[in-house]
Specification:
By secondary structure, the chain is of the alpha/beta class. Helix content is 32%, strand content 26%. α5 packs parallel to α6 and α9 (179-195) packs across α11 (306-319). The chain is globular and about 60 Å long.
Amino acid sequence: MIDNTIVWGIIGCGDVAEVKSGPAFQKCANSKLLAVMRRDAVLAKDFAERHNVPLWYNDADNLLANPEINAVYIATPPSTHLEYSLKAIKAGKNVYLEKPMVLSKEEGQQLSKATANSSQKLVVAHYRRFLPMYLKVKALIETNAIGTISFVDLRFLQPFDFNSKPAWRLNASVSGGGYFHDLAPHQLDLMYHFFGEYKFAKGLSVNQSKINNVVDMVNGIISFKNNIQFRGIWSFSIPKYLQEDKCTIYGEEGTIAFSFYEDELKLNTKTENKIFNYKNPENIQQPLIQQTVNYFLGKRDNPCPVEDGELVISVIEEFSKD
């Protein structure tokens, strides 16, 4: 480790690395971004030059062979997450891995075993855990602000975006199964983060609109070990006027309500109604990346371990059954 610093390489410097994550590796304390990789050499070079990154590659093996790099951020489409993670672990690099962690429970087990059998560390990029609004939600839950919680209702209903890019999200062999596999991991991870492990999860899914070849309607229920119940519905082909993004936590003394793409949190109890507004950081993954750097340096425990990623993938599989 160079001067108590995590020296990063990015594998997959596409859209997600432009603003959401990439610049954060240069902004975090004790963190340095040394190299990026993309299979298209022109695009890799362009990213490196625009973001003042010293090195670029168009081959992941060459990046992993660089002895100065001690950690990698894997931001490729999900179909290559397992492959690159295993290569990085074998090369002696710590890993910060985009969501969904892998494509299946079987791949999750492989990655968990590889991590357990190595001295390398792995963090899953469920960055919402460390955003201000969700920190507040967790604090309200932990301080019993709405009393004993009984159930959670999640509705994420979106129209189909015919101009959406990149197209790989609608290729199940690459993404795992469409927009649900792309967007729901963050939402389901928060449920686990808030309420703990679950006893069982059941669900079903259907390609209702036939716009493409992946499911666009998903229903699911979860029974947590603390007896909190969850029900969720996701649609990615709803008429625009029915669009909805809302999660409500019901307790014996009130509710906590928020959305996943707005910055407003509502607390309603017997005695008070409050609205909290939050602004996310420009590079939205920076808070978790900083915690990841601290973990790699031995300054804290794992902020989102591979076991948590496994739980999310197992729920996604249960919900995706047709």
